[in-house]
């Protein structure tokens, strides 16, 4: 029989009858007496035994804390919230930033570029991003072949008025002539 109250000379020396300690409230590895006077051993690992936890600071949102392996860990993970990006050309690459994303962000084709993806802008039989082309060459299209002579100045070679495109441009060779001169040497004439 356990003793839970001791009175000596009219004075109460020990009174456990009002104590509220229980095994589940006493830290594991410690002993005490409950209100009946019985010795109890604690079973409480606080709210969880975190000795086998594997979380690191980089895996916890910045400004938040957690306990792992018996230690308090302060988070360092960046909160990116809603991340959105627009793809503007075929070579655009979006790199997802490291950190937390709230799931409401989007990555999509830029609206201006998306508006260009219509069947009339795509060759018939070709599918671009789910848009089937219906553009066929017109029978009214006329082509022109031209010949050009090199020049020492910049030239822009365009089709004549009423012609849709150049089918071919031939560039003549640069004229090169060697002739003997009165000084006994050779004169080279390059025509431009």
Describe this structure in words.
This protein is mainly beta and 192 residues long. Helix content is 3%, strand content 29%. It is built from one helix and 14 strands. The strands form seven sheets. Strands 1-2 form a two-stranded antiparallel ribbon. The protein has a two-stranded antiparallel sheet with strand order 3-4. A two-stranded antiparallel ribbon has the order 5-6. It is elongated, with a radius of gyration of 44 Å.
Mean pLDDT across the residues is 90
Question: Which series of helices and strands comes N to C?
Answer: EEEEEEEEHEEEEEE
Briefly note the structural class of the backbone: mainly beta
The counted number of beta strands is 14
Strand percent estimate: 25-35%
Helix fraction? under 10%
Strand order, biggest sheet? 1-2
Sketch the major β-sheet.
2 strands, antiparallel
Give the overall form: elongated
What gap, in angstroms, lies between the N and C termini?
123 Å
Count of individual helical segments: 1
Supply Rg: 44 Å
Low-confidence stretches: none
What is this structure, in a nutshell?
With 192 residues, this protein is mostly beta strands. The chain contains 1 helix and 14 strands, in the order ββββββββαββββββ. Strand 9 and strand 10 form a beta hairpin.
